[in-house]
Each structure stands twice: as C-alpha cells, then as structure tokens.
Specification:
mainly alpha, Serine Threonine Protein Phosphatase 5, Tetratricopeptide repeat, elongated, 17 helices, about 280 residues
C-alpha cells in the first residue's frame, strides 16, 4: 500500500520531535525511514531541517545517531539512496552537529566515533571522511574541557548529557563487535595485526621469559640472543605476518585475533615446537 508523502512527512517529523537518546527511539526513527525508503529524499530533507533548526546540541547528536542507524540499515539492505544524500551533505551535517565554539566541542568525541565506524564499514569514501574529520582533530582536546567552566552548561544540563551519552554509547559498543557477513575470514586478524607495533628487544625478552616458564631446561637465552644484535630482526613484521596467518587458520594453533605480537609468537612456537623442534625451523 502506497503511503501518502504528506502524511509520511508529518509522521516522520513527529517521530523526530519525540526523539531522545534511547536506542529504541533512535531505532524507531531509522526503521520508519527505511520502511518508507521510496520517499528517502523527502524524509532526508526532514532530518536536515530538524538538524539545522534545533538549538539543542543533545538533539543534534541524537539526530546524527539516527543517520548512523539509517546508514547501517541501508548498507545491510543494499540501498544507497540515503547514503548518497548524506555523502553529498556530510560537511554540512558535521558542521551542524559540532558547531564552532566550546559548546560544540562536547559533540566532537561522539561524532568522531561514528565517523570511524563509517570508515570501518566503508560506507563513504576515505577522502570524504578525511575532509570532515581533519578539522575535528584539533578540537578533540577542547571536547574534554569541564563543561560547567568553559561552556556555560548548568549542572542539570551536564547530568542530562551524561545520561544521554551513556545511552548513545551502548549502540556504539554493540556495533564495534559486529563484523560484515561477507567479510574475509582473516580481515579481523589483519585489522588487529596492523594495530600492533613492530617487534623490538622488549618483545624478545618477554618471549624468552615466557618460553622459559614453559620449558625451563631449554637454552632459550642462546636462541634469542642470536637475533638481538641485528636490528634487521625488528623489521620482520611484514614477513612474519604470512607465517602468523598460516598458523592462525591451521589446525595446529588456536590464536585469538586480539592476541598481542608476543602472545601470538609464543603460541605458535609452543604449538609447533614443543615436541622437540628447533627455533631454526620458524
């Protein structure tokens, strides 16, 4: 059954007017937008109008979370209407959510988290996200300033903001652990691997200490000392990643993607060489 555009617009504006920081409220607005995606241009204009007209920074942040909900659902449904419109107006949207001045700084941290989620999901081009994220980097420190001192917020405003931030962050924490269904099995491991620092002397000292606990009688010091004099060993991370990946997805090693460089190396060593193999085989 076709929905009358005028009635849909009125109902959508009513939902936006009742919007709060709860996941239920944000999801309800997002669901309505997706259910009536044929009217995506009209409904999107309603969101932008409400975003620009409201004076409440909390409401602006809630609307930004609505856009995140719509983007997430659009991505799952393979619908690009809303995403294309948002990308065209992304600088305008970010400017509304984080207006210049001390008060606008309170929305910077939350905005950056959403932008980072969009980057991970590849909803928008990196260039588009870089363009709006770069100005926020210099303002992030200002976002941590005491609100009552610099921004003129009252105590009630601060308490309300804390409650609403708590509600909004629930959604972010949930989405951090959601991986795309069509993602490559090794993508999460590679993401964590890229975040790990290169091997250094401290890592080798830790590995030696841990392996000493596992096999006290073995001359671990001699094995590890062979590598320490040469600085080249500390640049082996790219080469090691291939062996690590093979071990992660083999039947001989069970390693969590969040394991540190040291733990991964030790686990592989233990799983393959505890039966008498030598360190030279790695």
């Amino acid at each position: 059954m076709e929905v009358d555009p005028f009635e849909a617009r009125l109902e959508f504006l009513s939902l936006l007017g009742k919007l709060n920081a709860s996941q239920h409220s944000i999801q309800k607005v997002g669901n309505f937008a997706m259910k009536n995606r044929k009217l995506h241009e009209d409904l999107y204009n309603c969101i932008i109008e409400e975003l620009e007209q409201t004076k409440s920074l909390n409401t602006r942040m809630n609307i930004f979370y609505v856009l995140d909900s719509i983007c997430h659902q659009s991505h799952k449904a393979g619908f690009h209407g809303y995403i294309d419109l948002i990308q065209k107006n992304l600088p305008r949207i970010i400017e509304c959510v984080t207006p210049s001045g001390p008060k606008g700084n309170v929305n910077v941290a939350g905005t950056k988290k959403i932008l980072e989620l969009w980057r991970v999901r590849k909803l928008f081009s990196d260039s588009a996200l870089d363009k709006v994220e770069k100005p926020l980097l210099s303002r992030e420190l200002g976002a941590d300033a005491p609100a009552s001192f610099d921004t003129g917020f009252t105590k009630d405003d601060i308490l309300k903001r804390m409650d609403e931030d708590r509600e909004r962050h629930k959604r972010i924490r949930e989405e951090i652990w959601i991986r795309p269904s069509d993602e490559d099995p090794g993508a999460e491991f590679l993401q964590y691997w890229d975040d790990v620092s290169d091997l250094d002397e401290v890592d080798y000292e830790d590995m030696e200490a841990e392996n000493e606990k596992y096999l006290p009688g073995y001359p671990w010091e001699l094995e590890f000392d062979r590598f320490l004099p040469s600085p080249a060993i500390f640049k082996l991370k790219p080469g090691l990643s291939v062996k690590l990946m093979e071990s992660v997805f083999s039947d001989t090693a069970v390693i969590t993607p969040s394991a540190t460089t040291t733990t991964v190396f030790i686990t592989i060593f233990r799983s393959r060489y505890s039966d008498g193999g030598t360190f030279d085989e790695i």
